[in-house]
């Protein structure tokens, strides 16, 4: 299994509400470009599957924005993870 993680530094609360979706879609396109490069390797049998994830520093304050980010990413089978949920210590 190949896991590709796109690490972002996005502060969702600093982005105007009307630009949140545009930024999220851009992040998803960037991640998809990385995933696309691994498809040939998967088809050649190097990987059983490919998983994509976006890693952000913190959740937006707005529960509605949070739900939208996770739902839109989920529609594309992309996991959204927040720094605070990641155990950085071995």
Please state how the strands of the largest beta sheet are arranged side by side.
Answer: 1-2-3
Portion in helices = 40-55%
The total domain count is 1
Distance between the termini: 21 Å
Using DSSP, what is the number of strands?
3
Structural commentary:
The protein has 90 residues and is an alpha/beta fold. It has one domain (2-85). Helices cover 44% and strands 20% of the residues. It contains 2 helices and 3 strands, in the order βαβαβ. It has a 3-stranded parallel beta sheet. β1, α1 and β2 (50-56) form a beta-alpha-beta unit. α1 (17-43) packs parallel to α2 (63-75). The radius of gyration is 14 Å and the shape is elongated. It starts with a strand and ends in an 8-residue tail after the last strand. The model has no long low-confidence stretch (mean pLDDT 93).
Short description:
This protein has helices at 17-43, 63-75, and strands spanning 2-7, 50-56, 78-82.
Properties at a glance:
20% strand; 2 helices; 90 residues; alpha/beta; 3 strands; 44% helix
Topology:
Layout: E1 2-7, H1 17-43, E2 50-56, H2 63-75, E3 78-82
């Amino acid at each position: 299994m190949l896991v590709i993680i796109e690490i972002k530094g996005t502060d969702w609360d600093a982005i105007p509400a009307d630009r949140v979706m545009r930024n999220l879609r851009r992040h998803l396109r960037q991640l998809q470009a990385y995933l696309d490069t691994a498809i040939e390797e998967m088809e050649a049998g190097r990987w059983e599957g490919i998983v994509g994830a976006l890693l952000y520093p913190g959740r937006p304050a707005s529960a509605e924005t949070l739900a939208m980010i996770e739902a839109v990413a989920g529609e594309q089978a992309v996991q959204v993870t927040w720094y605070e949920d990641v155990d950085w210590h071995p």
